[in-house]
Amino acid sequence: MLYYRRVRLLNAGNLPAVGPVLYVGLHRNGAVDGYVYKSQLPHIEFMISVQLRRSLIGRIFFDGIEISRGKDRAAGISAGAGDGNAVIDVCADYVRQGGELLILPEGTSDLGHRHLPFHKGAARTLVRLLDNSDTPPLVVPLGIHYEQAWAWQSDVEVVAGAPVDTRLPPEIQGMERVRVLHERLVQALERLAVQADDAETFARRERIAYAATLGSKRSYFDAMKALESGMPEAEQHASKLEQELLDSGRRLWRHQGVPLMPMHHAWAYPLLFAILAPLVVLACALNAPVLLAAAWAGRRFSDGRNTIALWRLLVGFPSLLIWVALTFLAALLFQALGWWFACLAVSLLGLMSVRRVQKLAVSLHNWAVAPSLRKPLLDWRAALEECMRARNV
């Protein structure tokens, strides 16, 4: 996806080569989760809320097997395939015929410190499949983790869990089967979720995990999961650093909550910034109408952090297509296609360099205003690296 810098698939060996397969996934960042999952699993179909396809733009961007959630029905919105059992029958038939279906059991998304309650629709679909299939489908749980879900060019990880055991003793019958399978799905998803007791603890661990990935190939999810299981020494180092920064009285800039400083080859930071920053500024100037429209939509229509990226994409992508078409026609009219292609190259290079320039700017600013803090910050990074390696992360 262009919006995110990198979407990384972890534990790909847990994914089957072909269907039938029922995927159950965590839901964090609104409908954007669907685009991210689809980028890694191109053949999947979704069970989606009917409200996503109410508008023309929704019907253009979203597709799947529609279901009416409780809040949809309360608003008088019903699914074309029917509600409840009828939709589950459609989903089961799709998988039974060799399809790959993804259900998000939370039903709605949230970027909070705990996952939302899991509904039983996936378990009911699975029971229907087990009742009417000669070969039981593979059931694979999926996790999704954003470093900063709303931010341009942030990183995302999709985690494939081990297949869920769907075998049941013969004495388990009726709704008890739904309950048992639902518990197994919940356990599988919770192994892929990252949770904390409160939002402050979760945010602190997000910052530590992000710092642990800098300059390494370490998985953000693995770092978050290690912190969830208990890494008091890493959290103590972070608290000590924050106090030292507070005592210094210096106002440091931060990237994703982390104060950065030049690391190795510090001389290269200003050189790289001098090369990339003008490209970013020029790219933003050349595409200002698109960027302003996307930024406005994210502020105007989003009702939480988990829908900012969605609204930026819903407005920004059509705006981009219109802008590209208009500028191309203008280039044809004024016989300036060479300039148009040059602007296109600058736009691509500049917009893809925004994250790098942000990090360089933060590092250089902090180095300029508080050079004495470079050593404590680098020492903290080294201590964090040692903590992570001690946990085999």
Notes on the protein architecture:
The protein is α/β, with parallel strands linked by helices and 393 residues long. It contains 15 helices and seven strands. The protein has three domains: 6-192, Glycerol-3-phosphate (1)-acyltransferase, CATH 3.40.1130.10; 199-250, no CATH class; 268-369, no CATH class. It has helices at 32-40, 56-61, 70-74, 85-96, 121-132, 175-192, 199-213, 220-230, 232-248, 268-286, 288-301, 308-333, 337-351, 354-369, 374-390; strands spanning 6-10, 21-25, 44-49, 65-67, 100-103, 138-146, 155-160. Strands 1-7-6-2-5-3-4 form a seven-stranded mixed beta sheet, sandwiched between helices. A hairpin with an 8-residue loop joins strand 6 and strand 7. The longest helix is centred in the last third of the chain and has 26 residues, at 308-333.
Essential attributes:
393 residues; alpha/beta; Glycerol-3-phosphate (1)-acyltransferase; 3 domains; 54% helix
Task: Note the topology.
Elements (H helix, E strand, L loop, with lengths): L5 E5 L10 E5 L6 H9 L3 E6 L6 H6 L3 E3 L2 H5 L10 H12 L3 E4 L17 H12 L5 E9 L8 E6 L14 H18 L6 H15 L6 H11 L1 H17 L19 H19 L1 H14 L6 H26 L3 H15 L2 H16 L4 H17 L3
Helix pairs in contact: 4-5, 5-6, 7-8, 9-15, 10-13, 10-14, 11-12, 12-13
